[in-house]
Write a structure and sequence with these properties.
Number of strands: 13
Mean pLDDT: 84
Number of domains: 2
Low-confidence stretches: 2-26
Strand order of the largest sheet: 1-2-3-4-7-6-5
Radius of gyration: 21 Å
Order of helices and strands: EHHEEHEHEEHHEEHEEEHEEHH
Distance between the termini: 43 Å
Largest sheet: 7 strands, mixed
Strand content: 15-25%
Length: 301
């Protein structure tokens, strides 16, 4: 796919943010930076909108969103996922130009002229996702989420969209659809098999979560689970038992999350190698030998 050729960078200020394990808190950290605040406000006034670019991490896709379209034109802000950041910036700049000229983009309607040879569509962003993806825009709008937003959605090379069964499965998780699944925010399929124990299924709070470098998820109620209690279950089932797990949907590969109880905030860190964990007794441990045995037991090794 190629974006239609047009000047982009000199028409809108762009703020780059590099995604990480705490990426959904990065927008919040900008709120206390007077330079960013001043630049954002000035560029909304000068160019019509300000773009925030979140670079991809090792797990989450890149995304870009606008700030100022609603203030200046009464039009919903726009967010886009999964393409190169410069392409998404160009797409949203083009949308800004059309909005400035009087266009109003509507959900569930095909639009040409954004990606060469392909239509795009918009879906309405559910406010349940605003805090996850549009935090800095919330600051701009008086520390509220009292503004509408649309997600710009692109198709695969066969012109199929992510909600269609024929959409390229390799691209399925490049752009989460923010108009649905508010009760399941993970990027993987709901029926993904994950490792846990009977205690978690019985309602004991999950306090330790590991997102292994190979993509496996582990959800445990203690640091040393008993392998006799091991279970392989659908991720959806665990989230149904404990909806608070949705708050760590963004955990990067090779990272761990822990909390003291169900109501506490998650603490995140890259879990160390086994050799390092000996020298760092206070850090979140990489899955203990007991957890590894659970995995090997399920895999039959």
């Amino acid at each position: 796919m190629q974006v239609q050729s047009r000047p982009v960078i000199n028409k809108c200020f762009i703020l780059y943010i590099f995604s990480g394990p705490n990426f959904n808190k990065m927008d919040e950290s900008l709120n206390d930076n007077p330079d960013y605040d001043k630049i954002t406000t000035e560029n909304v006034d000068k160019y019509g909108c300000h773009l925030v670019l979140i670079e991809a991490g090792n797990y989450l896709p890149a995304f870009v969103y606008s700030i100022g379209l609603y203030k200046n034109f009464g039009h919903p802000e726009i967010i886009c996922f999964g393409l190169k950041t410069e392409v998404m910036a160009g797409i949203i700049n083009h949308a800004r130009d059309m909005i400035k000229a009087g266009e109003t983009f509507l959900p569930d309607k095909a639009y040409r002229g954004f990606l060469e040879g392909y239509d795009i569509q918009f879906v309405e962003v559910d406010k349940e996702f605003y805090a996850n993806y549009l935090g800095y825009a919330g600051w701009f709008y008086n520390s509220t989420f009292d503004f509408p937003a649309l997600q710009l959605v692109w198709p695969d090379k066969e012109s199929n969209f992510p909600w269609e069964d024929s959409f390229n499965p390799d691209w399925k998780f490049k752009q989460p659809l923010l108009d649905r699944n508010v009760d399941f925010k993970f990027y993987e399929s709901k029926d993904l098999g994950v490792y846990t124990t009977q205690q978690a299924l019985d309602g004991t709070p999950v306090l330790y979560v590991y997102h292994n470098e190979d993509g496996d998820w582990q959800f445990h109620t203690s640091l040393e689970p008993d392998i006799s209690d091991g279970k392989l279950v659908c991720l959806k089932h665990l989230v149904e038992v404990d909806p608070s797990l949705n708050s760590i949907y963004h955990l990067q590969y090779g990272w761990a999350a822990s909390r003291t109880d169900r109501d506490s905030e998650w603490e995140l860190e890259e879990y160390p190698d086994e050799e390092e964990s000996i020298d760092q007794p206070n850090s979140i441990n990489k899955p203990t030998s007991g957890i590894k045995k659970v995995i090997n037991w399920f895999k039959g090794s």
